[in-house]
From TrEMBL:
Pfam families on file: AA_kinase
Gene Ontology molecular function terms on file: acetylglutamate kinase activity
Name this protein carries in UniProt: Acetylglutamate kinase
Positions bound to substrate: 51-52, 73, 176
Family, similarity comment: Belongs to the acetylglutamate kinase family. ArgB subfamily.
Role: Catalyzes the ATP-dependent phosphorylation of N-acetyl-L-glutamate.
Organism: Archangium minus
Highest taxon, organism lineage: Bacteria
Amino acid sequence: MSKLTDFRGRWFVVKIGGELAMDKQKLAASVGAAVRAFLDAGIRVAVIHGGGPQATEMQKKLGLQPKMVAGRRYTDEATLEVMKMTLAGQVSVDVASAFRIAGVPALCTTGMSAGLIDAKRRPPKVMSGAGPDPVDLGLVGDVTGVNTEAFQRISDAGFVPVLGSLSGDAQGNVLNINADTVATRVAAKLGAAKLFLVSNVPGVLANKDDPSTRLPTLTPAAAREKIASGVIQGGMIPKVEESLEMLEEGIEAIHIVGISPNDAVLREAEQPGSHGTAFLRG
């Protein structure tokens, strides 16, 4: 078991699913409390959030039909407007509110602000779980750069950068980016000691309907076998694939962890595999 103070001066990156922002008291007591503990231990923290459930709800209210491909959202012009409203508006404010309850000095924005994240439109590509043909996800971006100096300056000023997963390029083109993708790229560029992917799912499950089948640790080889055999499926596939790719780029450990119990994220930080699934190099 490691002590948080062992990571003093290092970065932890925390990604939270949009569904977690729907209960700000729970978010404050779990992720918010963990982030506060990290800060108290001298750890630098960056947070990335998604907004999938809120975007889907807003699309339906506007008479738009969400389209998902291999666990990812197809983004046309109308959908991009919805993502702006939810990620930069509704979810951003709700996360800021929860973190304020927890005493976390969150500075909430998106990757577009100050060029924190650079991105380009993703070309059609073959995706796991979507068949053999290349898939065009529309106005979806791939991260091409992370302004690590800006992250450092925000942290030095005493704030926690909290980004909704929108970004774009120097020409002002805005793109929707999978929040796991943003989190893994940010963690890699910051040289993060740990990346936490937090949602309502308590880790990678051998049986997706049975939390008791959680796999405590996975090596890259074991994870790829689980994808190939169909144990890992749906929206978990891109999450795991991004994790494996970023392990190769220097992140020391990646943790897929649930929000319950309240101390799950904090305990997973101290003892990998105890409250989630830890991806370790090997």
